[in-house]
Amino acid sequence: MGDALEDMLVTPVEMAAIDKDAADSGIDSFSLMRSAGLAVSAAALRLFPAGLRFVVLCGPGNNGGDGYVAAEALAESGAQVALYILGDADKLRGDAARACKGCRLAGLPVEAYEPQAGDIVVDALFGAGLARDLPGVAQTIIKRVSASRIPVLAVDLPSGIDGRSGEVRGASFTATHTVTFMAAKPGHVLMPGRQSCGTLEVFDIGIPTRLVAARASDLRINGPADWRHYSRGLDAGTHKYKRGHLAVLSGGPTSTGAARLSAAAGLVAGAGLVTLGSPPEALAANASHLTAIMLKEVGSAADLAEWLRDKRLNTFVLGPGFGVGKKARDFALMLCDRALVLDADGMSSFQQGREELFDKIAGNGGQVVMTPHEGEFARLFPEIAADAALSKIEKAQAAARLSHAVIIYKGPDTVVAAPSGRAVVNVNAPPWLATAGSGDVLAGIIGAHLAQGFPAFEAAAAAVWRHGEAGICAGRALTAERLVENIPPLA
Ligand SMILES: NC(=O)C1=CN([C@@H]2O[C@H](COP(=O)(O)OP(=O)(O)OC[C@H]3O[C@@H](n4cnc5c(N)ncnc54)[C@H](O)[C@@H]3O)[C@@H](O)[C@H]2O)[C@@H](O)CC1
Ligand SMILES: Nc1ncnc2c1ncn2[C@@H]1O[C@H](COP(=O)(O)OP(=O)(O)O)[C@@H](O)[C@H]1O
Ligand SMILES: [K+]
C-alpha cells in the first residue's frame, strides 16, 4: 500500500485534524482556502462555459469561505456572478470572514434566490463540518434548485451529505460535479452520497501528503494498489497444483446452479483445479453440466471429514444454493481451519448460534471471508445493522472485529473490512451486477484468490474489484454466466 492521495479516504474528523496540523506546521490556512476557492472557480469556468450566471451560495463556516473566494475569482474573470448568504455574514470568523471581506459582491439572503434558466449554482453552504440535519431554509433552497434542474457545482461535498457516512441530513443537493480537497471522504463513495456528487475531482490545495497520511486511518478506495503485490503474473514453471485447488460445495438436486457458478468463476479466476463436492442425489444434475470442473461425492459430515484428510485441499466455498440448516453449520465449523468463503446459506445458517462460528474462526487464525448483502448482514449482525450512528464502513469494521473474519458487505458501495479495522470501499461496480447469481460468481473469485495464496483481505478486495471489472466488460444485458466469461486477468 502506498500513501497515494487519490486512493485515500479521510473522514471529516481526520480532515479537520490535518487542517490543524497544516496550520501548526506554519502553512497559512488562508492560502489553503484561497487554493480551494480558486480550484472551484476554475472548475466552474471549465465545466460550464455556456453558463449565463454563476450563483454562489455561501454558508456560515469555511465551506462558505471557499465560496467567497470562488465568487470573487469568477467576478474577476468577467463572469456574471450573484452571491447569496445563509445566516449573518457579520458572524463569520477567521478565514471565512477574511474571504467574505475580500469578495467584491454584495450578498442577498439565500432564501431570496429564485433559480433562473442559465444559472449555475456553486454550492458552498456546508461541507465537511455538517454536524446535524440542514436548517430548514437550506432544505427549502435545495428543493427549489433541484426542482429547477439547474446544474450544481458542489464545494467539498454536496450540502446535506454527511461526509462520514454518505447519509442525507434532511435534504441534499444533487451535483453535476464536486471539487473536494486533498483526499476523498467516505461520503463521496458511500451511498447515497456517491450518487449526489456527480463527477468527483480531488484537488491538491498544498497540504503536504505526509501530513494527510499521518492522520488517515487504514481506509482506502479499492484498487490494484491494495493487492497488486499478490497478483504477480504466472511463473513459466508453474503447474496446476501450484495454482491452488478450490473446492465448492453444492446444494441438493434442485439447487445446484449456484455452486456451479462459483466453481466456474473460480476456474476462470485462476484456481489450478476446481472440484465440486456434491451430495449423492445431486451428482447426476451436476455431472451433466460439468467439464473442466471435477466432481466428488460429499454427502455427509463423515464424507467431508474423509475428504479433509487431504491437507493439500486448502480452500472452500460454502453457501451458494447449499440450503440453510444443521448440515451447513456442521460443514462450516469443520472448514474453519482452511481458507473458507462463507457465503449465502452458509452465513444464514448461523442466525442462531453465531458465537460458535466466530470462536472457531478466531481459534484458527481467521482465513475466513464472509460476504453478506444487506439482508444477510442484518441476519448475522442485527445489533450492528440497527445502529443508526454507524456508517456502512463502521458497520463492516464492527462485524469483522466481532466475527474475526474478513467481511465483504456487498451492495453498490461494497465495503471490505478486516478485523484489524483495515477497510476499502469499492467504486467500480456497475448497477447491472445486481442480477441473480452475481454473488455466487463473486464467491468463486474470492475462492480462487485464496487458493492461490492471497491473504484473506487481499483475496476479498481483489475479487470485489475484478467482479466489478467483469460487470463493466460484460455490459448491461448481464447474466451471471456472462459475468463468469468476462472475468478479466488479474495482472
Ligand atoms: N480541510 C481543509 O484543509 C480545508 C477546508 N476547507 C473548507 O472548510 C470546510 C469545513 O469547514 P467547517 O469546519 O467550517 O465546516 P462547514 O463550512 O461545512 O460548516 C460548519 C459550520 O456550520 C455549522 N453547522 C454544522 N452543521 C450545521 C447545521 N446542520 N445547521 C446549521 N449549522 C451547522 C457549524 O457549527 C460550523 O459553524 C470544508 O468543507 C472545505 O470546504 C477549505 O477552506 C480549504 C482547507
Ligand atoms: N446497485 C448495485 N450496483 C453495483 N453492484 C451491485 C448493486 N447491487 C448489488 N450489487 C452487487 O451484485 C452482487 C449481488 O450479490 P448477491 O446479493 O449475493 O446476489 P445473488 O445472491 O443473486 O448472487 C454483489 O457483489 C453486490 O455487491
Ligand atoms: K458544499
TrEMBL record:
Record note on cofactor: Binds 1 potassium ion per subunit.
What is its cofactor?
Answer: K(+); Mg(2+)
List the GO molecular function terms.
ADP-dependent NAD(P)H-hydrate dehydratase activity; ATP binding; kinase activity; metal ion binding; NAD(P)HX epimerase activity
- Binding positions for AMP per the UniProt entry: K410, G411, P412, D413, T414, G439
Keyword terms: ATP-binding, Isomerase, Kinase, Lyase, Metal-binding, Multifunctional enzyme, NAD, NADP, Nucleotide-binding, Potassium, Transferase
Catalytic activity field: (6S)-NADPHX + ADP = AMP + phosphate + NADPH + H(+); (6R)-NADHX = (6S)-NADHX; (6R)-NADPHX = (6S)-NADPHX; (6S)-NADHX + ADP = AMP + phosphate + NADH + H(+)
Q: Which SUPFAM superfamilies match?
A: Ribokinase-like, YjeF N-terminal domain-like
- The highest taxon in the source lineage is Bacteria
For this protein, the record's InterPro entries field holds: Carbohydrate_kinase_pred_CS, CARKD, Nnr, Ribokinase-like, YjeF_N_dom, YjeF_N_dom_sf
List GO BP terms, alphabetically: metabolite repair; nicotinamide nucleotide metabolic process
- Entry keyword annotation includes Isomerase: yes
Amino-acid positions noted as binding (6S)-NADPHX in the UniProt annotation, renumbered to this chain: 62-66, 127-133, 156, 258, 321, 373, 440
Q: By its UniProt entry, which Pfam families does this protein fall under?
A: Carb_kinase, YjeF_N
Q: Is Transcription regulation one of the keywords UniProt gives this record? A: no
Give the residues the record marks as binding K(+): N63, D123, S159
Entry EC number(s): 4.2.1.136, 5.1.99.6
Q: Which family is annotated? A: In the C-terminal section; belongs to the NnrD/CARKD family.
NCBIfam families linked: yjeF_cterm, yjeF_nterm
Q: How does it associate, per the subunit comment?
A: Homotetramer.
State what this protein does: Catalyzes the dehydration of the S-form of NAD(P)HX at the expense of ADP, which is converted to AMP. Together with NAD(P)HX epimerase, which catalyzes the epimerization of the S- and R-forms, the enzyme allows the repair of both epimers of NAD(P)HX, a damaged form of NAD(P)H that is a result of enzymatic or heat-dependent hydration. Bifunctional enzyme that catalyzes the epimerization of the S- and R-forms of NAD(P)HX and the dehydration of the S-form of NAD(P)HX at the expense of ADP, which is converted to AMP. This allows the repair of both epimers of NAD(P)HX, a damaged form of NAD(P)H that is a result of enzymatic or heat-dependent hydration.
**What protein am I looking at?**
Bifunctional NAD(P)H-hydrate repair enzyme
Q: Which organism is it from?
A: Sinorhizobium americanum
